[in-house]
Amino acid sequence: MKPILLALLLWLFALPSFAALDPAVVQQLAAEDSDLKIAAIQKLAQSADGQALKVLKAMNEEALFAAGDQVFLKDKDQAVDAASGAAITPPPENADSVTINNRVRGELAGALAALRLFSPERHMRLAAAKELTLSLASEPDAGMAPMLARARDQESDDKVKAALAQAYALATLKHADAAARLDAVKALAGSGDPNIKLLLLATMEPANEAEVTVRRAAIAAHAEVKSRLALGETVGRIFSGLSLGSILLLAALGLAITYGVMGVINMAHGELLMIGAYAAYFMQGLFRSYLPGWLDWYVVAAIPVAFLAAAAVGVLLERTVIRWLYGRPLETLLATWGLSLILIQAARVLFGAQNVEVANPSWMSGGIELMPSIVLPLNRIVIVGFALLVLALVWVLMNRTRLGLFVRAVTQNRAMAGCVGVPTARIDSVAFALGAGIAGLGGVALSQIANVGPDMGQGYIVDSFMVVVLGGVGQLAGAVWAALGLGVVSKFLEGWAGAVVAKIVVLVFIIMFIQKRPQGLFALKGRFVET
Amino acid sequence: MRTPLVIRFFTATSRKGWMALGVFASIALVLLPLLHLAVPPDHPLHVSAYVIAVGGKIMCYAIVAVAMDLIWGYAGILSLGHGVFFALGGYAFGQYLMRQIGRDGAYHADLPDFMVFLDWKSLPWYWFGSDSFGLALFKVVAIPGLLALVFGFFAFRSRIKGVYFSIITQAMTYAFMLLFFRNETGFGGNNGFTDFKRILNYPITAPEMRVALFGLSALMLMFTLLLGRYLVTSKFGRVLTAIRDAESRVMFIGYNPLHYKLFIWTVSAMLCGIAGALYVPQVGIINPGEMSPANSIEIAIWVAVGGRATLIGPVIGAAIVNLSKSFFTQAFPDYWLFFLGALFVVVTLYLPDGVVGLWKRLSQTWKARRS
Q1: What single string gives the DSSP state of each residue in A50-104?
Q2: A348 to chain B: closest CA residue
């Protein structure tokens, strides 16, 4: 493949481009013999012509046909002559698709990437440069160097130029000239790609690299790439930890409020998350049918809907079941577990047992690329911000409003709060609705990064209760630190020891932690009598 | 002079209780085995293998339910992780069953099939002595007991109780489930242990072996009930009930609740381990699904349905819930979870003393009406 490509590239720039393709060459594409086909592909690629790109693309997708002497491609059910680009009506009969084997396919891929490097569209050139970098990183190919140099020199866009320089350095890594190899190694030091790190590691071996200066440069470059990769990995882990932490926080905030006020664990809390996620799914469907132009904003519309839906279900649960079990926390645990089973089965009956598809709106998809190996997804960034916003609102509600004052009063001492006129029963309902609503908000956030299905809430009850245990009851600060801390710590442990071991270590740590501080990180000040 | 332990053990159960046990023993140990083995299959009185299998399974569940009742009903500790002890007992005996397959597995190798599949060359250290029947019996009791002892010591020492304790036990079983789902853990991963062939070199599918396991389950259930009766009527049991009702007062009087809770917690775990070991050869499979939090929490509902703080209640509850599960999952699979969920809610709201409590209430009203 190397010499062929080299030859191709030499032709590519030596000859002027034709307005239409040579019919003889195009006919050769349909030849029986693979060697003839490859020769024709090379000849077409040298033309650097838009029509050649179309023909080769069609050939790659097996949409190129031959009928007798006529070679044509099908473009939206219309037959187009491959050489001239003119439409043929009526389409020829007895046409056979031009078959390609793996050798031809490989040749086509190289020719297509090379042709795309000179495409007028910036994103096409960038993608082609990246594709070439990837294939070169696994197998450096000196034959590509002249073409890459030319492409780099005529490139106007900085980003594409940098990618091409990288690809050029990769291509010259095995160059016959030691000075060229040295330049290549030095250029590669600026990279953040794990494959390039491996290549540099190989270059450090005397067996692979004869020149001492190049080896030294490779050692320096390797260290630089390695430290950049390590930094990127740490940043990535902290970020995914914060992302997990913000989800935990959204799940735990509501639980912390209800547990604080009523002293009961709502085992159906995870299912309230599920309701929020299904609310997002529902709104997506609604927008798709009635407001397709506004589809990108369905998530925003889903936020109040999810809050209200989850809060309504929460009030229903509180009024019908939980209220009647006051003072029997263990029975509440069982009853709410039963409610969660009912809610899960109801979701299965209503929406089907399969996961449903909830798409990111376009403004939340994509990511910020820190480095080739580290991309921070935009949807997770939005969720971290959303969690902070919800946290701020809850803080204001709890600390700056009369309702918050009442909720805190009931949390601290129910009997005394009742004595001074706080309507404790109503506060219970409101607090439960609030906690459920926040869980619904968490569900909307979760729908953007995780699968939405009837069982999605099951895994969150233990994790969010751990946050409450760790943070201490009735303290927002505790919940925040515990959620973010648990998120970051478990992501780091996952990197070192795997997800399962991380989970077990975190659990053992929490059990040990309770030994020392049964009241959590941030205990309420005061004296308590156990009942 | 104190009465010897054996006498106290057997006299703890009342005459009425012994009569009930006698009836149960003659049905489970004599009548059903005879009707299954000696009566030809086409005879109307023949008891099918299915009945023996379901009956054996439910008796294992009943042992677990009684064990659960000992800690929840009498000590007020709700464990949402008892499935882990059950499964560990099952896995401990399953190791022995896997070794008994010998070279009859799919790969005809000395190692169990899943290890051949993982390309392991020798047994890991924790499979040491797994071909010994005696050691297997010991591990069935010791491993769940040891886990319970260590876990309970740390939990009770720092006076974790109520919902805290419940959630932490749930997290424990969840963590164990994840651990056993991994192939590298060495317990067959997702598939667990299955395809058993023999116990003590006797084929496991033979009707005689089925009946023997059925009878053993019945004996074990009877022993569990006798032990439970002895424990709860002894002084120990009284202190335990006192801890359930007013832990602080018990401490002020001078008892240390840690020892009492830890003892009953460990005994309960051991009983679960034995039940698991009896369960695995009868159903022919053990996998990490047994450790899922949902399974453990279901045990609590058996006890609640039957009636807490009675010993017969959990047995009845386990039978009712599991028979209705068999019925629903075959007849209306979509409604089983609705039914189970409603059961949780209705029992906690309206039947705090379960079926046994309902029966007592009804018989009292009848008596009052008659007089």
Answers
A1: HHHHHHHHHHHTT-EEEETTEEEEEETTEEEETTT--B-SSPPSS-EEPP--HHH
A2: B334
